[in-house]
């Protein structure tokens, strides 16, 4: 049986990846509720195939993921049906609320976030990267398009900021740190959605690149907690960028969001969550520097890869300074 699975692993990965990308494209390119639902279902099926092929999931975790995704799809579909066929204003608003809840469930955000840590801890690095980054694009973009209650989104930002900022402080593994970090970044994404879709796409695009660097370095260092020489320093530098520590890319992106959003109260929640999250980021980074810092194992090529996050930050900074003042 194992030999048969290995034989078809390559085609299954290609097929599931194609379904995942196709579903995402449908979600971000349509203005129809039903077409977006079809895109979400195709995307979910592709992702579940990747979960089965590339992960060590037990049946309980896989069923947990499927149940929450199906629940989110059901709420979205029922809410969309109410919105499209009901003329009563109060019932229509209830339908939009169900649509919002369904999309939040699909993205793994409050109040349906409990399945995310278990899936990430049972998955490979590629699946974890997709779940914490790429899989948020479609549902959150649809949430921004059909959002009718900014007060509700502000409450979600408040809860996600507290949960991500304080929940990660007691975590001791990289996977859990990245999960709770993604909650804080998701709060920033919602703040961006309240301003404009372009700002949201810019923020999540930079976040996906930064998360990809962290995941790649962790994969190369065997995911042990700061035990390898040069890779531990690379992980530390990419984590500092992801945390928003100046003058790296994460800090620059957050400053741009602050300038674009202005003095909204919801921005205070996101900033507080980032400040709290910086504690467990710095705990991991300082642990690496004090225990395993060894420049003798690094060469010039290693330093180039270490400062990729810094380079990205400087390029983004220069580009937006030009856009603002030229």
From TrEMBL:
Topology of the protein relative to the lipid bilayer: Multi-pass membrane protein
Any Gene Ontology biological process: mitochondrial electron transport, NADH to ubiquinone
EC number: 7.1.1.2
Protein's recorded name: NADH-ubiquinone oxidoreductase chain 2
Keywords: Electron transport, Membrane, Mitochondrion, Mitochondrion inner membrane, NAD, Respiratory chain, Translocase, Transmembrane, Transmembrane helix, Transport, Ubiquinone
GO cellular component: mitochondrial inner membrane
Protein's cellular compartments: Mitochondrion inner membrane
Catalysis: reaction(s): a ubiquinone + NADH + 5 H(+)(in) = a ubiquinol + NAD(+) + 4 H(+)(out)
GO molecular function: NADH dehydrogenase (ubiquinone) activity
Top EC category: translocase
Limits of the NADH:quinone oxidoreductase/Mrp antiporter transmembrane domain: 33-279
Classification lineage: Eukaryota, Metazoa, Spiralia, Lophotrochozoa, Mollusca
Main location: mitochondrion
Family, per entry: Belongs to the complex I subunit 2 family.
TM regions (residue ranges): 12-30, 177-194, 200-219, 231-249, 255-282, 303-322
């Amino acid at each position: 049986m194992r030999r048969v699975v290995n034989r078809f692993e390559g085609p299954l990965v290609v097929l599931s990846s194609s379904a995942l990308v196709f579903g995402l494209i449908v979600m971000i390119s349509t203005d129809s509720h039903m077409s977006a639902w079809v895109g979400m279902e195709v995307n979910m099926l592709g992702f579940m195939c990747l979960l089965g092929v590339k992960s060590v999931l037990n049946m309980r975790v896989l069923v947990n993921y499927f149940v929450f995704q199906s629940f989110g799809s059901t709420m979205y579909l029922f809410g969309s049906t109410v919105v499209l066929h009901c003329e009563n204003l109060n019932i229509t608003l209830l339908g939009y609320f169900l649509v919002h809840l369904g999309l939040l469930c699909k993205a793994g955000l409050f109040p349906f976030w409990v399945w995310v840590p278990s899936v990430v801890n049972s998955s490979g690095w590629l699946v974890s990267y997709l779940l914490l980054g790429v899989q948020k694009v479609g549902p959150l973009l649809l949430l921004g398009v059909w959002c009718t209650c900014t007060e509700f989104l502000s409450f979600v930002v408040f809860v996600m900021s507290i949960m991500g900022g304080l929940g990660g402080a007691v975590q001791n593994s990289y996977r859990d740190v990245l999960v709770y970090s993604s909650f804080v970044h998701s709060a920033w994404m919602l703040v961006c959605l309240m301003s404009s879709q372009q700002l949201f796409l810019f923020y999540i695009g930079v976040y996906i690149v930064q998360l990809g660097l962290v995941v790649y370095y962790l994969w190369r260092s065997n995911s042990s907690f700061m035990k390898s020489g040069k890779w531990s320093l690379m992980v530390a530098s990419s984590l500092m960028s992801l945390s928003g520590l100046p003058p790296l890319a994460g800090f620059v992106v957050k400053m741009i969001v602050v300038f674009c959003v202005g003095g909204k109260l919801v921005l205070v929640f996101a900033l507080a969550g980032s400040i709290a999250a910086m504690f467990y980021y710095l705990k991991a980074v300082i642990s690496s520097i004090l225990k395993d810092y060894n420049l003798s194992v690094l060469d010039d090529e290693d330093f180039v890869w270490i400062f990729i996050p810094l380079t990205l930050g400087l390029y983004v900074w220069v580009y937006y300074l030009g856009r603002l003042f030229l």
